[in-house]
Amino acid sequence: MKDLKYVFYIGGTPEEVWKALISPEGTKQIYYGSVIRSTFQVGELLEYVGPGADGDETVHVYGDVLEYVPNQVLRFTHFAGKAYTKDDKQEYESRISYLLEPVGSCTKLTLIHDQWQEGDPHFENSDAAWWMILSNTKSLVETGKTLDLID
């Protein structure tokens, strides 16, 4: 399967973009009410938890932290939460990398979702969702609010 790669230039500092991607205040807006639960220590668990099919504590995504450099890199393994995999006999692992770098007075945000396993049923939904999540990130940093993307 191909890698998913997205590059956004955002009118804000790496610290502002990082805060939107990592802080509870930012993730709740970008990820539709979810927050990240993690110590961000390499090898430790990372979970996106929020409202969903299993109630307010639905684990949407989880994995292990592979790399964490504040304001620069967050890389972790990716598994879909149990609410999304109830009928699957196999867990599919992939990897997510957020890479931030300053460009002039802006921040270049590169998201790479790679190391997909053949037949992963979450590939197409991930490709569609990342555009909305990253657009929300850009809008939040630049305007203080996210887009109205839910019907």
UniProtKB/TrEMBL annotation:
Gene3D superfamilies: 3.30.530.20. Residues 13-134 form the Activator of Hsp90 ATPase homologue 1/2-like C-terminal domain. Belongs to the AHA1 family. This is SRPBCC family protein. It comes from Bacillus salipaludis.
